[in-house]
Amino acid sequence: MILNQIMKIFGKKREATMDDKLLDMLMENEGFSGKAYICPAGYLTIGYGHNLDAKPISEKVSRMILQEDIGDAIRDLYGIFPDYYKYSHNRKMALIDLMFNLGMTRLRKFVKFIDAVKSDDWNEAADELIDSEWYEQVGERSPKIVDLIKKG
Question: Please, which of 44, 84, 109, 131 could form a disulfide with 52 given CB 3.0 to 4.6 Å?
């Protein structure tokens, strides 16, 4: 990648390597699917022909997906909380965790919680979480999130 950028600066074009050609060929031949599916041979498959039955995704790949999901969660949180950027790091972490756990549709149902956050009434926001079914459903997670909301 960096070599390509350097070559471009000097007006040179880098010749495609075997690795480049192999990637292009496999991507074209396999096709991409962001959703898991059963391939013709009967294996659970995702991406560019990745056989999940033979080789589950690694923790490294899972972390990359998690980082992308965090970016999506932050984008979605701005849709609910336009002042999200002003919140403390701990409160942002709590809101991201809530978005992960609940998803956009269910989080939007926490109307009183959302109103309290928008009003910077963090104690009320914490109380709204404690008074919800969510608090009992998620076990040890809930007091941690409430604590982040309260203390900021």
Answer: 44
| Domains of the chain, each with CATH number or no CATH | 2-51 (no CATH), 59-151 (1.10.530.40)
DSSP state at residue 31: -
Report the distance separating Cα 16 and Cα 96, nearest Å: 41
pLDDT computed for residue 2 by the predictor: 56
Average pLDDT, the chain: 92
The helix/strand/coil state of 119 is coil
pLDDT digits (tens, 9 = 90+) for 61-105: 999 999 999 999 999 999 999 999 999 999 999 999 999 999 999
pLDDT of residue 45: 96
The per-residue pLDDT for 33 is: 96
Q: How far is CA 132 from CA 11, 19, 105, in A?
A: 61, 53, 16
Nearest to 132 by CA among 145, 119, 113, 114: 113
Amino acid making up residue 89: H
Instruction: State the Cα–Cα distance between residues 79 and 92, nearest whole angstrom.
Output: 14
Query: Angle at Cα 59 formed by Cα 139 and Cα 61, nearest 5°?
Result: 115
Cα–Cα distances (Å) from 30 to 3, 17, 48, 49, 51, in that order, read: 28, 20, 5, 6, 12
